[in-house]
Structures are given as C-alpha cells and as structure tokens.
Design brief:
The structure holds two protein chains of two kinds.
Chain A lengths: L1 H17 L4 H9 L5 E4 L6 H6 L3 E4 L12 H4 L6 H11 L8 E5 L3 H13 L4 E5 L9 H19 L6 H27 L6 H9 L6 H14 L11 E6 L8 H9 L2 E5 L19 H11 L14 H11 L4 E7 L3 H16 L4 E6 L7 H15 L2
Parallel strand pairs in A: 1-2, 1-3, 3-4, 5-6, 5-7, 7-8
Chain B lengths: L9 H23 L4 E3 L7 H6 L3 E3 L1 H10 L4 H9 L8 H12 L14 E6 L3 H14 L3 E5 L10 H22 L5 H24 L11 H13 L3 H19 L10 E6 L7 H9 L3 E6 L19 H11 L7 H14 L4 E7 L3 H4 L2 H11 L4 E6 L9 H17 L23
Parallel strand pairs in B: 1-2, 1-3, 3-4, 5-6, 5-7, 7-8
Helix pairs in contact in B: 1-9, 1-10, 3-5, 4-5, 5-6, 7-12, 8-10, 9-10, 11-16
Classes of the chains: A alpha/beta, B alpha/beta.
Bound molecules: iron/sulfur cluster (2 copies).
One iron/sulfur cluster binds next to helix 6 and helix 14 of chain B.
C-alpha cells in the first residue's frame, strides 16, 4: 500500500514537471491575487530574495519535447542548445504569461544573449541579468554580489515587491530547510539506491523549481519519511556519478534507461537549484551579505560557476569518492559549450583516478532512446564482465 | 568586373614588422626567461598594468587567428578534438590548445612554454574562463581571473567599478610577487597615457571612414591594425604606429582616394571574419566595390570611436571602465544593436552584413533576432551568412559567394540605393551610447 502511494506521488510530480502551463504557479497566483511570479533561467538564482519580496520564484527548464519550435529557430539558429530555443518559443507562444519577470545570470554566452533578446521581444516584462562573480578568490566579490543583490531588490520593489531584512531572514530559513531535506534524500539514495530510484528523486527535487517552497518542504518530508519504509529489493548495480546535465535537462526517459541498464545513479548535477548550497546559509546578521557570502563560499561546484581556488575537476573527484562511485557518465546537452569544455579536464581527472567513464549526448527533444540504451548497456557489460 | 582587393601602403608593412618583433620578444622569453610574459585576452584588457611591469602580453586569440590566416589551423584543431574537445567548442580554443600540445606556433618562432601568469580578463565571453583554466592546467602556470561585471545596465555602477579596481590592485600584488619587481605607478600612468594617445589616433582613423569614398576598410583593414592595437597600444611604439597610419590614411582622404576606383556600397559588418578564407571573403566584397565603413568586430578591444579614452589622472578607474563598458564583448546585445544603428546613420551605410560564426556564441547566439530587428523593424537591407572564424571546414565558398552576389544585386536594384533609407522607425532606439 505504502509503495503504491509513494509511486503515485512520483507520477504526480512527473506530470507536474511535464505540464507547460505551470499549474502550481497559476494556483498560487489565484490564491495570492496581485502577487508576482518571477521565472529564472537555470542554473541558480537567489530565490530567497524573490520569496522575501513576496514573489514566487520559478525555475524554468525549457519545454522538453512538448513544444514545436516555430519561431525561435529564426532568432537562434544553428549550433545553439535546445533550451535556449524552447525558452524563447515558450515566450513567443504565451507559455510564459504567468511570469511578470524573468531572471538570467552569467552561466554561458547563449543564455546571456537570450536575456537581452527576450528583453527586446517582451518589453512588458521585467527582465534582468544578474552578474554572479567568477573570482571568489577576491575578498571584494562578496561585497560586489551583495551590491548586485541590492540592485535586484531595488528592481523588484519597483515592480511591486515588498521587501525587508526580516522577511529575507525568514525566507533563508525556509530554503535552508528545503535544502536540508534535499540533502537527506540524496544521502538516502546514495546509501540505498533501491529505496529511491534516481528518476524518483529527480522529479521530487526538481518539483521544487515549479511550486511554492512551503508545499515543496511538505512533499520532501513526506518522501523522506516514507521512502525508507518501502519494500523494494536491493539490486546489484554499478554505482555511477552522472555529470554534465546542469542546465538543459535530459528527458526523464534517459535517466530511467541509465538505471534500467544496470546503473545506480548515486550522484548527479541535475536540477541544481534546490540543492545549491553545501550547508545552511546563516540567517543571522545582514542577510543579503550572508546570501552573497554563501554563493561565493558555500556553493556546490558546477560547470557554470568558476572558482579557480579549486578546479572543478577536483570537485568531481571528491564527488566520486564520497559517493563511492564505480564509474562516471558524462551526460551532456547537445551544443552545451560549458559541458563540452569541462568534459576534457573531467575526463583526464577520472582517468587519473582509474575510473571508467562514458560520454553521452542528449537533447530535450529526443524521440528514440535505443542508441543511448545500447551504449549504456555495452558500457555496463564491459565493466561487469571485466 | 572581378575586382580584387589590393594591399598597398606602408601601414601593412609596418604592422607586419611590429608583429614579428613581438613574436621575436616572445621567443627571447621562451629561451632566456626574460622578458616576463602573461597570457591574456584581447577584449577589454589591462595590458597597461602589464606594461608597467615590463611584462609582454601573449594573446592566444592573436596566435589562433594568425594560424588560421596562414591556413594552418586545421591540424591543431584536429589534435584538440582527438583529446576530447567537441566539434562544437570554440575553435579558437581548440587551435590554441592543439598548438600547445604539438608545439606549433603561427610564425614558427618559439613561444614561452609557461607564461609568468595566465590572466583571464573575463569580459563577457564565458569561453575565456574555460580556455584560460585549461591553458593554466596544461602549462602549469599560475592563474588569476579578473571578474568583470557584464554591462547589464546602461552605465556601470560605482560598485562595478570598485569591484574591478580592487581586483586590479590584487593583481598588482600578485605581479609584484611573480616578477620580484616593485609596482611603479609612474610607469603605469605613462602606459595609460600612451594608450590614451593611441586610442585618439585610432579613433580618428575610424572617423575617416565617414567620408565618401572611405580611405580604408573598417573591417578588413581595421583587422590589420588591431594586432598593434592590442600588443602595443600602451607603448610609444604604438603611438608612433598609429600616428603613421593616420597620416597615411589622411593623405589618401585628401587625395579623394577610396579603396576602389569607385565606392559603390557602404556596409556595416557584424561578427568576426572567416580567417581561414580571409582573402577569398574579402574579394567577394571587392567584386562589388563594397567598403565596410564600420564593424563591431573592430571594437572587441575597445569602443574608442565613441569617445572613451584611458585617463592617466585616474589610471585604475579608467582601466576598469574600459574593461566593463568600453568594449563590445562586455556589452549586451541591445547595446550592440544601437552601436550598429549608429554606424548606419553616422557612417552613412547602405546595409548590414551579419556574419554568424559557429565558434563564437558570444557574437552569434541571437543574431537571428538582430537580423529581424534590422531588416523588419528598421527596414535596413541585411544579409546573414554563416561560417567560422577558425575552422576551415565550415566555409561553403560557392554558397557564400552566391548569397553575397544576390544581396548586392538586390541592393543595386532597390530604390533604396545609393543611400539606403536608414531612417529608424520611431521608438526604435534601444539604449544610449556614450557621445563622442
Ligand atoms: S544548456 Fe549549456 S549552452 Fe545551453 S543555455 Fe544551458 S549552459 Fe548554456
Ligand atoms: S567564443 Fe568568441 S569571443 Fe569567446 S573565445 Fe571564442 S571566438 Fe573569442
């Protein structure tokens, strides 16, 4: 009975993620008339600030295979990843209508240019670009980011946000709770992958991007309490880290097929926003400064955040050690330049550690999965029979 | 009718010599450890600060383009792909890394294997961050990243400027440590002063293209002048070079000489050129006696034609301002649209050529929207073509030629010619550029 119930929960949240009409956002807006929703382009946004201003932060993730590209190809032509085009297409077909504002940040050149193309095409929306610092070695970067956040707060106030430091402290505490629960689910998954499949964990965590944090916390609590009591059996699978899918998201089917081919995904970089900080953001003192300091010093490593104090390949090395991985699968969105670049030093690092690895490429819009399935199966077989 | 572009004048010779001298100094550094060297990017950089320490810049971008122009880029690109770089990574990076691994240099002279510092001046291009991380990893040289806030508002805020100034000061301390030399503020001011003078001369050269016929091509010829602009602008040699270039071009202007016997079309060019087919590409425009009177690519280093100068009275702040706001790579798309629109009007152009290069998403992502803005909203004749700036495999010669020919044929027959109606529609102005 318990198993059935929890499985229904996963299915429900999978459906929520696939629904391009943002039902949870619309519901929230109906319940909170006059309040605004602000979408943010992956990977990270200071959601606490949006929440403290009385707005609903929503993580965008393209349109998957559920939208035909009619207009966006002419604006962003060849050699550009899919999420850029589907996001623009969503705007051009009215799918972003629930959002009064859209936030972008310095993750890659395509995303940066998209911010300004959107600005021209949707002049009625508040569209902003946040510069997240790339030189954390400089003591000035925390101050700079705090100033950038204050600029954002100023902009949000002009579109109707109502902000003060106490509200921000409360929001930080709330999102700390969310992240703590997400960390707990990840720990459960790494320890007992049979109790929480990767795709299940993924839909539950990613749902945090498209629903109010208060409701998300309730969902996480429910899953954290019931998953350990499931009756699932242990399997003998390869423990893998999946790396490279930090922005455009792979189709759910791809995550499933990796598991079905005999892998337990024990770590990944899918939907990073709800698990961005490695530890709690302090909620005492100047909360804007605290949030800025956390970004600079307590972020997870990611291909779109640069910290030359500690190269990302060492971040990956650590991840594989902590999660006791047997192998690494590089899962990269087609035309995602940050993923392509990182692949080279990542691969060298993994080879240095003697870990086998496999590189796969996907698009949001993928209709046949057979080739990928065969590649993963061959990879797993080669390791199992070694 | 098949007019070919010709390369006359002393500037080109002088430019060649200066670049060879630069490579010779780098070879000296490779052999004896002196002068000290530093890798950095051409766009919005702080070469003035390096000059103050007597450090010679290494520009991987210049190496990459030199390689492509000499038809040598494919081998290193393939070498990089073999080690795992993707077909769709910026080919500048691949060519550079391939060269590092195989010990290839564009001129055959040696380059330092391990620069004193790898300095990533991050101005807009995210590829820079990856590229320089990789160079530091592969050479074992120390890395420093100057994080320059992207210009997301009309003007930089005082916090933006303070942030960059602080990092420049941290860089000074780092350079003192790495070179064992004390920072000399007078030498820094002098370098900034030289830059200001080079920029003034360069800016006057660019304004010469406002006359008809233009005495120089602000895309193809400007590229020739850009090497010295990056390597020498903060030195007396740079000032002398640009003074000579200006004098030569002014003489042409007074003689009423253009690039061609008759200047038939005036263009604004957007995007980097296809270096592997530079000459072929240029000839496709020469055939129509079309001159580029302005180009965005020639402002990657700086936007001096709109009035900005480094300021010896405020050396750190002006270097920071230049890095944040006064180069095209760190400005947003809409500011680029405005820049081009201003060229259309003030430099009196007939149309816009948008060259999409596959490698460079900084320039190219969203250029379809730019085409839409110019052709539909402003009613400007606009041509959109695709190839690459470094990888010879992406140049479809016949197709490119056909599209260019068709564009000029249409332009010729359109009523809009000889002067395209560049009257902007009301309310089309997007953001404001600094006045000259
Ligand atoms: S998928 Fe990669 S290339 Fe595309 S927007 Fe995201 S980070 Fe940029
Ligand atoms: S992406 Fe463009 S600006 Fe960046 S390094 Fe490559 S060619 Fe240069």
């Amino acid at each position: 009975m318990l198993d059935l119930e929890i499985e229904r929960t996963f299915d429900r949240y999978r459906d929520l993620l696939e629904d391009l009409s943002f039902p949870a956002v619309r519901r929230w807006k109906e319940a909170n008339p006059g309040r605004k929703a602000v979408g943010f382009f992956p990977v990270y946004a200071p959601v606490e600030i949006l929440h403290a201003a009385g707005m609903l932060p929503v993580g965008l993730a393209g349109a998957g295979d559920r939208l035909d590209i009619q207009h966006a190809d002419a604006r962003f032509g060849s050699f550009i990843c899919s999420i850029i085009k589907t996001t623009l297409e969503m705007g051009m077909t009215g799918h972003l209508e629930p959002f009064e504002g859209l936030l972008f940040s310095s993750i890659c050149d395509s995303a940066r240019n998209l911010a300004f193309v959107m600005k021209r095409n949707f002049p009625q929306k508040y569209i902003d670009f946040l510069h997240l610092p790339h030189n954390p070695s400089s003591p000035a970067s925390v101050e700079f980011l705090a100033a950038e956040y204050r600029r954002l707060i100023g902009e949000l106030t002009t579109i109707g946000g109502d902000f003060n430091d106490d509200k921000l402290r409360a929001s930080i505490a709330l999102f700390n709770r969310q992240r703590e629960l997400v960390r707990r689910l990840y720990a459960l998954r790494a320890a007992s992958p049979h109790l929480l499949r990767a795709w299940e964990c993924y839909v539950v965590v990613r749902a945090g991007n498209v629903m109010p944090v208060e409701e998300h916390i309730a969902l996480l609590e429910q899953v954290a309490a019931s998953a350990p009591r499931r009756g699932a059996k242990k399997r003998d699978s390869l423990r893998v880290v999946v790396e490279g899918a930090f922005c455009e998201q792979p189709p759910l089917e791809v995550i499933r097929l990796i598991e079905e081919a005999g892998c337990d995904i024990v770590e990944d970089d899918f939907a990073l926003a709800p698990r961005w900080f490695t530890e709690d953001v302090p909620s005492a003192g100047d909360p804007v400064l605290a949030l800025a300091e956390a970004y600079v010093n307590r972020s997870v490593y990611s291909s779109v955040r640069h910290d030359f104090r500690k190269p990302r390949w060492l971040g990956l090395a650590e991840k594989t050690k902590v999660s006791r991985a047997d192998a690494v699968i590089f899962l990269m969105a087609k035309f995602c330049e940050p993923a392509y670049f990182d692949y080279v030093p990542f691969k060298q690092q993994v080879e240095l550690m003697g870990l086998p690895h496999l590189a796969l490429e996907y698009e949001e819009k993928l209709f046949t999965f057979e080739r990928l399935r065969t590649e993963v199966e061959t990879f797993v077989e080669s390791l199992v029979f070694d | 009718m098949a007019e070919k572009s010709e390369y006359r004048g002393n500037i080109h010779q002088r430019q060649k010599q200066l670049m060879l001298d630069w490579y010779a100094r780098l070879e000296q550094a490779a052999e004896g450890g002196e002068p000290k060297t530093c890798s950095l990017m051409v766009s919005g950089n702080c070469v003035e600060l390096l000059e103050a320490f007597g450090i010679v810049p290494i520009y991987p971008e210049v190496n990459a383009l030199q390689l492509a122009i000499r038809h040598q880029s494919l081998d290193p690109i393939l070498a990089a792909e073999e080690m795992g770089y993707a077909a769709d990574n910026c080919a500048y990076v691949k060519a550079d890394i391939g060269c590092l691994l195989k010990g290839i240099t564009p001129t055959g002279t040696r380059l330092p294997e391990k620069p004193t510092l790898v300095l990533c001046n991050f101005v807009g291009c995210n590829t820079y961050l990856k590229w320089f991380e990789h160079v530091a990893k592969f050479t074992g040289a120390p890395l420093y990243v100057i994080d320059v806030p992207f210009l997301r508002t009309a003007e930089p805020s005082k916090e933006d400027v303070a942030y960059v100034v602080k990092q420049l000061q941290e860089l000074v301390a780092l350079l003192e440590k790495l070179t064992g030399r004390k920072f000399d503020p007078d030498r820094f001011r002098h370098a900034v002063e030289c830059s200001a003078r080079s920029e003034e001369l360069w800016s006057r050269i660019k304004h010469l293209a406002k006359v008809t016929p233009s005495p120089f091509d602000a895309y193809f010829d400007a590229i020739t002048l850009m090497g010295p602009l990056y390597v020498y602008r903060a030195t007396q040699e740079g000032v002398d070079f640009f003074a000579q270039a200006l004098a030569e071009l002014e003489a042409k202007r007074f003689a009423g000489e253009g690039i061609y016997e008759r200047e038939r079309f005036r263009l604004v060019m957007e995007g980097p050129p296809p270096y592997p087919y530079f000459r072929t590409f240029r000839d496709m425009f020469a055939k129509w006696q079309a001159t580029a009177v302005a180009s965005t690519y020639s402002t990657v280093g700086g936007l001096w034609e709109f009035g900005f100068r480094h300021d010896p009275a405020q050396p750190f702040e002006s270097v920071a301002m230049h890095m944040i706001a006064q180069n095209v790579t760190n400005r947003n798309m809409l500011q680029r649209y405005d820049q081009m629109q201003r060229y259309m009007e003030e430099w009196k152009a007939d149309g816009v050529i948008i060259h999409f290069v596959k490698s460079c998403r900084l320039f190219s992502a969203g250029q379809g929207d730019m085409r839409d803005y110019f052709s539909k909203q402003l009613g400007v004749p606009t041509l959109y073509i695709e190839s690459d700036l470094e990888d010879p495999r992406y140049f479809a010669e016949a197709q490119t030629r056909n599209r260019i020919d068709a564009f000029f044929e249409a332009l010729e027959h359109s009523k809009a010619h000889p002067r395209a109606k560049a009257e902007p529609k009301k309310g089309a102005q997007l953001c404001v550029l600094p006045q000259a």
